[in-house]
Amino acid sequence: MLPLDLGRLSAAPKSEFPIPFARLYDHLCWADRKVLESLRSTENPPARALALYAHVLGAEHVWLTRIHSKPAAVAVWPSLTIDECEELANANCEAFGSLVKTLTPASLAKQIAYTNTAGASFISTLEDILVHVALHGSYHRGQIAISLRESGEVPAPTDYIAFARGSSAAIRTTPART
To answer: What's the per-residue H, E or C state across the chain?
Structure first.
């Protein structure tokens, strides 16, 4: 195992390379739609998969409201139907699309103060929040894919490279081994 110096990493300066937020959030919207399509294509979506998808969307919404200093209308772990998920995914996508069009180096460095769901207060840059939201969704979309596979379904690929290529990733058409 490689040693990991967390102190060095947390104090690391910001990258000199710009993060392509427009492309990253185009992927986020595409991947959220792919998950929705996977859930809709199943006769009876696994409850865990739907709960995780609702969480991804709820968290996106909560972060948007923190960025804009507004109260959240949706919880971070909401209980949503597939139709409600679709509505929230569309609203989140539109809001993130508008936000990324306005990004500048100065706006990305803006400090956002917020209180998390446990009641702890933090301050993070807009850049760090936007990276977190994109990575958070990717993490949970992987869990959704596993949940769908475990129930015998074939999830749509949501990997960034499939989005970038404009073609599907390699898809395993047999259920996961148990």
So the answer is: CCCCCHHHHHCCCCCCCCCCHHHHHHHHHHHHHHHHHHHHHCCCCCHHHHHHHHHHHHHHHHHHHHHCCCCCCCCCCCCCCHHHHHHHHHHHHHHHHHHHHCCCHHHHCCEEEEECCCCCEEEEEHHHHHHHHHHHHHHHHHHHHHHHHHCCCCCCCCCHHHHHHCCCCCCCCCCCCC
| Dist. CA 109–CA 157, nearest whole Å | 33
pLDDT in tens, 83-104: 999 999 999 999 999 999 999 9
CB-based contact 82:45 (threshold 8 Å): yes
Q: Is 143 left (phi over 0), alpha (psi -120 to 50) or beta?
A: alpha
Q: How far, in Å, CA of 156 to CA of 57, rounded?
A: 17
Measured CA to CA, the distance from residue 73 to residue 7 in angstroms comes to: 37
Beta strand 121-125 with 111-115 is antiparallel
Pair of tokens at residue 34? 């792919």
pLDDT in tens, 117-143: 999 999 999 999 999 999 999 999 999
- The whole-angstrom separation of Cα 145 and Cα 156 is 8
